[in-house]
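Field guide to reading this record: the first block holds the primary sequence, the second block holds the structure written as discrete tokens, and the final block holds curator observations. Each block starts with its own label. This record concerns Pirin family protein, catalogued under organism Candidatus Tidjanibacter faecipullorum.

BLOCK 1 — SEQUENCE
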Amino acid sequence: MERVIHRAESRGFADSGWRRCYFNFSFANYYDPRRINFGALRVLNEVTMLPGEGMNAHPHDNMEIVAIPLQGTLEYGDNMGNMVTLTAGQADVISAGSGIVHTTYNNSPQEEVHYLVLWIFPRRYELPPAYHRVTLAPAVRNGWQPVASPVGGDGVLPINQDAWIWLIGLDAGAEASYRLHRAGNGCYAFLIEGEAAMADVELAAQDAVGVTDAEEVTVRALAPARLLLVEVPMQNWKQEEDEA
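BLOCK 2 — STRUCTURE
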């Protein structure tokens, strides 16, 4: 088993006044050549957007972009005619493919929106763009809650990659094992809140650990905890220079 450990305080950070972003991997004005990606996982950003603010129309291509709200409401729109709201308990994916233009706003007059954004390199490039939003299956305490998979399903986003995304909430002292779907894949765990341990690494809130060369990992809660886990292929992926 090989591990990479990313402590919360080592993340990149940008504060534009209307939006605060923490970067687990190199992004925008944050660059660390040791932290470009974890296999097919290119981006994991934790974002807080102030009321009444948002990102105007901007393009993406050839990337799977997943948003998971933790608090508040996002309003999403794109040039394919989609216009939806996204709240905690839901998630969406932009399969940008050959190109898509979209906007993201927090139209609440008083509540911040707090969400996670993941970018995953696609399995196939230049496909027609697509957008999906789901209401996640109800969370089961101490059990894995599916967010995304290669085929999707009821309450599960489809993504164009041999990758899986999960959430889990754990009571203090509880354990949950996760068996990887494919040989050669790795898993990257980000502790949203609480205290936990995985792969003999103790994690505080916003710490992360990536694990490779393992068939199974176990998460143990040292205090009530909530965790995001992403399983991705680990072969080399082209690096995108456009971080718009």
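BLOCK 3 — OBSERVATIONS
The chain has a mean pLDDT of 95.
The two ends are 35 Å apart (CA to CA).
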